[in-house]
Structures are given as C-alpha cells and as structure tokens.
C-alpha cells in the first residue's frame, strides 16, 4: 500500500514545493514592479518641483541685481550698518560731527561722520543694559546726547564722546516719551523737553537735575512728532488734530528757561498732521515751517508774523500728493528743499516751484518713520520701521 502511495505523495510534495516556489518568486516581482512604479511617480514628482525651483531661480537672479541697483542709487552716500536689531531713533549732531543711532539691540552708537567713507567707520557705543532707547537728541553744541529709555521712562544725558561716552545724569520723566528735545543756549544751562506718546499729550520741561519746571498739555488726542527750531526758540508738535500749536520758550534775562508759551497756531489742514519741521539754523533765521497732513498736502508757512498781536502764520505754498499722504517731512535750513516720504519712497520737492525733482523708490527696507537733514542741508538720513540700517542720501544737485 505504502509502495503504491509513495509516488503520489512525492508528486504532491513536488507540486506543493513547485507552487510555493512560483508563488513566492512571483509576489516580490509584483511588489518590485509596484515599488518601481511609485519610485517613477516619486521621481516625476521630484523632477517637477525641481523644474519649478529652476523657474523660480531666474526671477530671483534677475531681481537680485535690481536690488543692488536700488541700493546703489546715485544719491545714496552712506549706509550705517552694525546694529543687530531694529533702529528706533537717529539724530545728526548740529555741529555735523556725529550721527547717533539707537536700537532695540540695547545700544546707542555714536558714529563719526567723517569716518563713514572708510570700510570700518569709527564709533562709540553706549550700552543700555535691560533697556533700549526710543528717542535721542543732541544739544546745540553737539557735546551732549540725550536718550530716552523704553521700560523705565527715563532720560539720560551723555557727554565726552571723544574718549568714552559718560552718563552725566539720569532722571525719571513720569510719562512715555515720543520725542526728546534738548533746549540750550551756551553751556550755562539746559532744559530737557519730553513730549508724551499715545494718549499722553503733555510736554514736560525738566532741568538737568530732573526737576520738573513746567507741564503743558497739547490736548490733541495723540502726538505724532515733537520738534524744535535749531535756534532753540520754538517747539512744535504734529498731532492727530489738524491744528498745529507752536510754542515759544521764554527766557529770563540770563537766558535761562522761564516758560513755555503758546505763540502761534497753524490753521488750514483738514486732517491730522503727520510731521512738521522748521527751516533755519544757528546761522540762518527761522522763517518757515513745513507740515505734512493726512489731507494729502504739504504746506509751507511763513512764521514771520506779529504773533504777540495774535497774528497767525499764513500758508504760502502748497503741494498736493497725487495719492495718499506723506508720513514724514523735513526742510533744509535754507528753506529751498523739502524732503518727504510715503511708504518706503523718498521725494525731494523744490520749494521755488513746488515740484518733485527727485523720487527714490525703496529708499529704505520698509516704511520710513523718520527723515532728517543735517545742519548743512546737504545730507538726509532715512530711518525705517524695523530696518537695522540707516541710509544717508545726498540732496539732488541741479
Ligand atoms: C533744578 O531745579 C531745582 C529746584 O529748583 C534746583 O534745586 C536745582 O539746582 C536745579 N538744577 C539745575 C541743574 O539747575
């Protein structure tokens, strides 16, 4: 029986082995095929983005030189680099020696302007541990730098820039400060004015010991910028409401601060005033004020009026923005040129004709928050919102 069954059993075993061999070799083949298919699909997917990247690369390559061209605008004379985070404030010293920059990197830099052409400009650093400066301003002689710190609402005055900047005094100012002004004539005395930010619309006057001399409330909902004429006579505040209030510093016989008095009002804008500037300098008398407003206009005002007899300055020239409005404005000390900005664009307006003579698109990395001509009116700095650099442009030469 077994002898008869054996070939059948062997045949069955052979059939089973054969079946399993065929089955087991077939399965991986199918799997491999599927795997190869998916790989092909994957490769195709990979290839497609590669093509996209390649396509995208070209526009990037073509925009890069454009940016370089923009950075090398013929009027760009200096780029101040070195801060490791956003610049919050900038100021030219009236004597032309320094440019001060404050940053959220907790430093203030005093850069020697004559060294700006070299690869490694000379600068002095003021460190503000645990805090940073939100506003800065020089005294008339350029020997003192005032700084306002963010957290502490404190004013600090520094001097001795030639060796190592030294803090000569620090005092609390009891409000959040938008603008800081150092008002001084000669070396005898100095008054520090702090102009409140946000819903605080006060102007506070302090002596250098931190003693509050006077508080004036501008009462214009929100202050945008507080400025001072270079002859230390007038203070003006651009604010949310259309009227501009101009204050005069009244002095005692020895020249020391006696009182801040409202002297004039500028009436005519139909919307808030974003920025304001005086012409004049230590050598040139103050004759004009320029204002930019949310009503889209840039106005030039003659302030040679008998304000003690309640006469108000008159608008003598006007320029209307083709669209929108200008957020910052400044005027050269000789009153011949106005610079203004909209977004990241800088414009130079010739006062004689009230026509834009030069336009620099992307004059900064982002929206421009402050511009200022130096005391000669030849150069202007441009500060952005979050930019770590300051760009300095030259006045367009005719
Ligand atoms: C500031 O004013 C106070 C109070 O009048 C006075 O004691 C102090 O000497 C003044 N400081 C300066 C530097 O004038």
UniProtKB/TrEMBL annotation:
<dbReference type="GO" id="GO:0005783">
    <property type="term" value="C:endoplasmic reticulum"/>
</dbReference>
<feature type="repeat" description="WD">
    <location>
        <begin position="266"/>
        <end position="311"/>
    </location>
</feature>
<dbReference type="InterPro" id="IPR019775">
    <property type="entry name" value="WD40_repeat_CS"/>
</dbReference>
<feature type="compositionally biased region" description="Basic and acidic residues">
    <location>
        <begin position="28"/>
        <end position="46"/>
    </location>
</feature>
<dbReference type="GO" id="GO:0030968">
    <property type="term" value="P:endoplasmic reticulum unfolded protein response"/>
</dbReference>
<keyword id="KW-0472">Membrane</keyword>
<keyword id="KW-0853">WD repeat</keyword>
<dbReference type="InterPro" id="IPR015943">
    <property type="entry name" value="WD40/YVTN_repeat-like_dom_sf"/>
</dbReference>
<feature type="region of interest" description="Disordered">
    <location>
        <begin position="28"/>
        <end position="67"/>
    </location>
</feature>
<keyword id="KW-0812">Transmembrane</keyword>
<feature type="compositionally biased region" description="Basic residues">
    <location>
        <begin position="47"/>
        <end position="57"/>
    </location>
</feature>
<keyword id="KW-1133">Transmembrane helix</keyword>
<dbReference type="Pfam" id="PF00400">
    <property type="entry name" value="WD40"/>
</dbReference>
<feature type="repeat" description="WD">
    <location>
        <begin position="80"/>
        <end position="110"/>
    </location>
</feature>
<protein>
    <submittedName>
        <fullName>Uncharacterized protein</fullName>
    </submittedName>
</protein>
<keyword id="KW-0677">Repeat</keyword>
<dbReference type="InterPro" id="IPR042410">
    <property type="entry name" value="WBSCR13"/>
</dbReference>
<dbReference type="InterPro" id="IPR001680">
    <property type="entry name" value="WD40_rpt"/>
</dbReference>
<dbReference type="InterPro" id="IPR036322">
    <property type="entry name" value="WD40_repeat_dom_sf"/>
</dbReference>
<feature type="transmembrane region" description="Helical">
    <location>
        <begin position="6"/>
        <end position="23"/>
    </location>
</feature>
